[in-house]
């Protein structure tokens, strides 16, 4: 049986950590909670590429100005079944 490697962290404290990081970067609390939940849930489902490993990328994007903490979200086009939304260089999770 292969030996397990890696660090195990409880989901809720990890979410809380992510929320604090996002809020420190200027993200509103509700958006921070939504995004942290999506990241941790992705990890719990085994989709590591879309999990907490992305947190550093978001922080770097916010620091560099490539991403915006409080974007102007606009509906660009809408049909009865779909909508095209411009998230204004903000986090996509709260918008979707």
Spatial ordering of strands, largest sheet: 1-2
Radius of gyration: 15 Å
What's the architecture, going by CATH?
Orthogonal Bundle
The succession of helices and strands, N to C, reads HHHEEH
Contiguous runs where pLDDT drops below 50 for at least 5 residues: none
Helix fraction by DSSP (H/I, runs of at least 4): 40-55%
Total number of β-strand segments?
2
Tags for this model:
mainly alpha, Hypothetical Oxidoreductase Yiak, Chain: A, domain 1, 9% strand, 96 residues, 46% helix, two-stranded antiparallel sheet
Task: Report a brief summary of the structure.
The protein has 96 residues and is mainly α. It has four helices and two strands; from the N terminus they run αααββα. The longest helix has 16 residues, at 29-44.
Structure, described:
The protein has 96 residues and is mainly alpha-helical. The chain has one domain (11-95): Malate/L-lactate/L-sulpholactate dehydrogenase, four-helix barrel (Hypothetical Oxidoreductase Yiak, Chain: A, domain 1, Orthogonal Bundle). It contains four helices and two strands; from the N terminus they run H-H-H-E-E-H. The chain has helices at 11-24, 29-44, 55-64, 92-95, and strands spanning 74-78, 83-86. Strands 1-2 form a two-stranded antiparallel ribbon. It is globular, with a radius of gyration of 15 Å. The model has no long low-confidence stretch (mean pLDDT 95).
